Amino acid sequence: MDYKIGFIGAGKMATAIIKGIIDSGFCKSENIFVSDVSEAALEKMEKDLKISPLATNNEVVKAADIVFCAVKPFVLKDVLNGVKGDFNDKQLLVSIAAGVSIKTIEEFTGKMPVIRVMPNTPAFVKAGMSAVCRGTFATEKHSDLICKIFNSLGIAVKEDEKNIDVITAVSGSGPAYFYYFINEFAKAGVKYGLKKETALVLAAQTALGSAKMALETGVSLEQLIINVTTPGGCTEVGNNILAECKADEIIDKVVKGTMEKAAALGK
Ligand SMILES: NC(=O)c1ccc[n+]([C@@H]2O[C@H](COP(=O)([O-])OP(=O)(O)OC[C@H]3O[C@@H](n4cnc5c(N)ncnc54)[C@H](OP(=O)(O)O)[C@@H]3O)[C@@H](O)[C@H]2O)c1
Q1: Are 118 and 96 in contact, with CB atoms under 8 Å apart?
Q2: Beta partners for 154?
Q3: Fewer CB within a 10 Å sphere, N or C end of the chain?
């Protein structure tokens, strides 16, 4: 079936998901209906992705089988309040907002099926990571359908909503933290003599290759580290500096802080 998919919000995450949906052939661009309060955002998306722009959120809800709410968490309740009268019982609502619980969403949508997803922006290049949580009135079929969409944009896993704040920290916000590492490695490369473009490709391709090794070889991360580290060699020096600086504690703090913010957003 060729679904009609609606997006309320034409921002960064909606762009990543829509680009992935179109590139993977899941849905044609003309069957994607989008609204946004920002005319500039909507015009840009229409130009770049050839979606069908609509003037109001209400029109998007009326046009779509699956409605994605892709606005910031602090405007989600207002948006839902504005469109709640336009839903019909055959539709599926998907929220990607950090911190806003399914229970809160269902206060507006009643018995309609709701799926909450924590995606990430690498969906833009079909390397996204998404966690899919089922609402009270959503079926396994709804959940499978949304997993199918997000699997076409990378990897999707079904998860219990109780874990969504830690997922927000590890994979939702995670790209920002991994970009930071890539950037710092590239900056150090430049500091010690490399050209900027060379340093960037060395750092980014090394991150990509390491991620593929972690995902595809079945070898544990501890063993993969051992495999790169010759006793008494160069890598051992770097590993020891990471341990001395307690890099693990810093990462724990980053995850915990992000997680606590995600939990606070919903209150
Ligand atoms: N970005 C990420 O990496 C990421 C990752 C995982 C989850 N998320 C979640 O995805 C959601 C969207 O994030 P984002 O980064 O894509 O935000 P964004 O780039 O700011 O996009 C949101 C868009 O919604 C528009 N908007 C605001 N109020 C609206 C309304 N009443 N009706 C229709 N459109 C409205 C905004 O316009 P204005 O700018 O004019 O307000 C903006 O263009 C958030 O809930 C976030 O938690 C984001």
Answers
A1: yes
A2: 128
A3: N
54 pocket-lining for ligand 1 (C-beta < 6 Å): no
Q: Is the pLDDT of residue 171 over 80?
A: yes
Specify if 169 maps to a domain: no
Looking at the CA of residue 38, tell me the nearest atom of ligand 1.
40
pLDDT 10s digits, 5-16: 999 999 999 999
Within this chain, do residues 230 and 108 fall inside the same structural domain, yes or no? Answer: no
Q: Three-state SS for 75? A: helix
For 49-84, what is each residue's pLDDT tens digit? 999 999 999 999 999 999 999 999 999 999 999 999
State whether residue 8 is helix, strand or coil.
strand
124 neighbors 16 (Cβ within 8 angstroms): yes
Q: Which residues form the domain of 211? A: 174-265
Ligand 1 and 127: CB distance under 6 A: no
Q: 53 alpha carbon to ligand 1 midpoint, in Å?
A: 16
Nearest C-alpha neighbor of 235 from the set 211, 210, 257 = 210
Number of C-alpha atoms within 13 angstroms, CB side, residue 51? 36
The mean pLDDT of 152-157, rounded to a whole number, is 94
